[in-house]
Amino acid sequence: MERLNERRRLLWAPVLLVLSLQVLLGVAPIGNATSAPSQSAPSPPPSAVGCYQYDASTGWTSVECVPSTAFTESVADDEGGGTSGPPIYGVSINSPIATSGEVWVGFSKFTAESDSKWGQNSFSIQLNTNVFDNGNSQYWDQFTVQNEPNYINGHSPFAWACIQQLVVYPPPGSDTEKCVNVIIQSMWSTYSAMAEGTTTGGNLQGLYEICSPSGNCYWYSVTATDKYGLAGNWLESSGTVLGFGGRSKASFTSPTQEATDISIGASGLNAANTGQSWDSGESNNLSYSSANYAGCASGSCWEDTTSSN
Length: 309
Fold this sequence. Notes:
Layout: H1 2-16, E1 50-55, E2 59-63, H2 68-74, E3 88-92, E4 100-109, E5 112-115, E6 119-120, E7 123-129, E8 132-134, E9 137-148, E10 158-169, E11 176-181, E12 192-200, E13 203-211, E14 217-225, E15 236-238, E16 241-242, E17 249-253, E18 257-265, E19 273-278, E20 283-284, E21 287-297, E22 300-308
């Protein structure tokens, strides 16, 4: 977390000198997504199963989670499964077992974006784990920010931060999702967002950050029961900005340039493997222009990538 905060400061410092203080986050938020922004990382979120948002004045507050039927109705087809998209960069370890991972995405150039199924400004920020065996089945977990600001497929605009626990085999799987409403977003040339996942006490916890051009950041958290046993099986983290869901593709108009930082963490971790070998059900039309293994510190190992068109 400390290393990403340093990266954010370096990215935002020259931009904040010329941007106005107006918060430009697209259309109005829905549901429980309203909160006062915070320019610094909040205190740790509550550990109890549930959904939370952070307010700069009142701290973490419990809010209603998105009904499970809303996810099924809005994203009816396959959410991924680690098989259909082109390879994306990630980090992996052999031991010890990971207890955390994080993806941070930040843009330095942006023109426009449209999702192949969901329309303009629809996209996801994904932190994906490895596919893992537990008993006779295979599972795959995601920590995501998903943004859909359009009136499409019979529903109103929405944006969620989610923990998704997916059954890869045998199909059809009993996928489970726990999501919190977040502020609906429009991308811009300095858009950034973060998704962090941890395993703790038999639960999974997601921490999510969405930042505005003024530097104000909105924070959300979701805690869910670790239904399929990611704890004890987490060995890979991968992710970036991709299509919204249902195997869709985020297409960016040139010129676009974004940076992704991806990490994996465990107690005593001091080495990791990196490379372009991990998949997601969703994709984008950007090409990797650089990838650098940033090394390890304080039990976390990092890969930094840049993509553009």
